[in-house]
Predict the structure.
Amino acid sequence: MVPIWIVTVFAALAAFYTALELPRQEAVNTAIVSSASATNFLAYRRAVQDFLRANPNATGVIDDAALAGFWLPGYIRDPSWSNLVQNNTLYVFSRAAVAHGTVHALYSKSGESMLVGTKHATSGRLAAPNGIDTGIILPAAIASGALVMLGQ
C-alpha cells in the first residue's frame, strides 16, 4: 500500500510541475523569439536609414544589393523585411507573418513609438500595438496586417 502512495505523490508532483513549467517555458521562448525578430527588424531599418543618409534622393524600394554595404557586422538578413521610400517617408515593413509578440517587442524597443504598429485590414491605416488608430494612411504596397515602422 505504501509504494502506491509514493508513486501517486510523485506522479502528482510531476503533473503539477509540468502544468506550471510548460506554459512558463513557452512564454520565455516566445519572448526570446519575438525579441530577436524585433532586433533583426531594427538592424534592417538602420541599414536602410544609413543608405538614405548617404543617398538622400533615393525613392521606392531600396534593394538588398544597395543595402549590402550598410549591414551591421554579422547581420543575417531576414527575408520577411522590406522597405519603401515614398513622399520623403520611410516605411519598413514585413512581407510575411511575424513571430507572435514581435509587434509588442518592437513597440517596446522603440520607446513605445506611435510610428510602430500594423496595417489595419479595413482602414489601411497604421494601428499602434496599444490599439490606437494613428490616422496614418499606409501605402497600398504594404499588406494588411503587416508589421510597420515609419520614419527616418
